[in-house]
Amino acid sequence: MTAPLATPEPGWVPAVPFPSPEDTFLADGDRVRLAYFRIPDDPDLYAKAWFGSKTMGPPGHVHGGAMAATLDEAMGAVCWMNGHHVVAATITINFLAMLPIETETIVHAMIDRVEGRKVHLRSKLKDPSGRIVAEGSGLFIVLKDEALKALAKL
Description:
Thiol Ester Dehydrase, Chain A, seven-stranded antiparallel beta sheet, 7 strands
């Protein structure tokens, strides 16, 4: 099956949360494909994610690791999009339902609160019916300036 194009929901505009000029929704491949969006003047991040055949865990369904990686990526992305240059310290993923392979989903990531360099987050992965199939929470740490500068040199 060919992945659908990442069509935004009404009111969404494309977002590039990380400092990268590449379009993150790839046109080919059998793994996870992501396209990021936001609603103007809203700090939350949304994404369309499509899970190809190479993300299979249980027969015919997406591996939990692929769903977890997608939620982790979205939580980090919402931070970067909002000017918090972070890395993950801890993430917790709750799996609520199995997700069939080759399903386009909606991801929603939001910042709960910021305490100094600690950023607390939540994320959800919804199937086409709107049912939440996985949800995540995380603690991310803002990089110190010298660490961020060192990364920029790589």
